[in-house]
From TrEMBL:
Belongs to the phosphate/phosphite/phosphonate binding protein family. Keywords: Signal. The keyword Signal applies. GO terms for biological process: transmembrane transport. PROSITE patterns: PROKAR_LIPOPROTEIN. SUPFAM superfamilies: Periplasmic binding protein-like II. The gene is phnD. GO terms for cellular component: ATP-binding cassette (ABC) transporter complex. The lineage of its organism: Bacteria, Bacillati, Bacillota, Tissierellia, Tissierellales. The keyword RNA-binding does not apply. InterPro entries: ABC_peri_PhnD-like (IPR030836), PhnD (IPR005770). This is Phosphate-import protein PhnD. Pfam families: Phosphonate-bd (PF12974). PANTHER family: PHOSPHONATES-BINDING PERIPLASMIC PROTEIN (PTHR35841:SF1). Residues 1-21 form the signal peptide.
């Protein structure tokens, strides 16, 4: 009888030991799972970059994809290009913190800075400090200046475009032209610069305004027939395109402190990375040999004009 009791006691002890061990193992496993999940979430953080869709979606997708690849290589972060349906969609994504770095025009950059406290313009091309819009018209219409556009059909680019709408509208006003009253019908909005020159060349509209660099590239690549349409006026210069980065708060929370400086450093040193084929391809797409520093205050003129025209609150 005593022997049986001893055996029962031993079995109970062993059961208790195994139970405690199992609990410990379960707790350790839970802690490990939590740690793994945290590490996984951290490693899955993706720095998303975007660009206003001001030209061919195919070209943007290819080259902004290369930009994402380059930034990833140089920063060690996961970087992804996310296309935007239109200019406003990019600003909205930036406001929500869903876009961390964006290639904006002057107007969309100002709009983004106005809705995101701490957003900062960090880099631009040298040409963006002295940018221009061009006014184009069909050949044979005797259009020599902005005042000759009265009574003509006209197309801007996107409504949110700096070089395709805001500044052309401003300079038209300076020349005494009211786009909403003086054209043949209401002005059209093509949506992008490449569509603007195509519409004028085709005869759909008699004149239009667009980004000077897109026009020059189209002429160089033979994408536009200058025997049918050509430039008749180039605007005075103004600040335009830039890389704007989201707030320090958003970046630090998702990618750690110093992310803004890390990204800015990569952008500002691309021109010196002459042996890197990806860097060379990206810079060629942007029609520049480097990016240089810029600052929010450079866009104060754009902001002032946009407020006067009711395009920024």
């Amino acid at each position: 009888m005593k022997r049986i009791k001893k055996l029962l006691s031993l079995l109970l002890s062993l059961t208790l030991v195994f139970s405690l061990a199992a609990c410990g193992s379960s707790s350790d496993s839970g802690d490990a799972e939590k740690a793994d999940k945290k590490t996984s979430e951290s490693s899955e953080a993706v720095l998303k970059i975007g660009a206003i869709p001001d030209q061919s979606a195919e070209e943007l997708n290819e080259n902004m994809g290369k930009m994402a690849e380059y930034l990833s290589e140089k920063t060690g972060l996961k970087v992804e290009y996310v296309p935007s349906q239109d200019y406003a969609a990019l600003v909205t994504a930036f406001e929500r913190g869903e876009m961390h770095l964006a290639w904006f025009g002057g107007l969309t950059g100002v709009q983004a800075m106005n809705v995101v406290s701490g957003a900062e313009a960090i880099a631009q091309r040298p040409m963006d400090a002295q940018f221009h819009s061009v006014f184009i018209a069909q050949k044979g219409l005797d259009i020599a200046g902005l005042e000759d556009l009265k009574g003509k059909s006209f197309t801007f680019g996107s409504e949110s475009s700096t070089s395709g709408h805001l500044m052309p509208r401003y300079f038209l006003g300076e020349a005494g032209i009211n786009p909403d009253a003086d054209f043949d019908g209401e002005p059209n909005f093509s949506g992008s610069h490449d569509k603007t020159y195509a519409l004028v060349e085709s005869g759909a509209f008699q004149a239009g305004a667009l980004n000077e660099s897109v026009w020059k590239k189209a002429v160089e690549e033979g994408k536009v027939d200058t025997s049918k349409v050509d430039v008749f006026y180039t605007t005075p210069d103004y600040f335009d395109y830039n890389w704007t980065i989201n707030s320090e708060e958003v970046l630090s929370e998702q990618f750690g402190e110093g992310t803004k400086e890390k990204v800015a450093d990569v952008l500002l040193n691309m021109g010196a990375d002459s042996e890197n084929e990806t860097a060379k391809a990206v810079l060629a797409f942007f029609q520049t040999d480097s990016f240089i520093e810029t600052a929010n205050e450079n866009y104060s003129m754009i902001e002032k004009i946009a407020k006067e025209l009711g395009m920024v609150k």
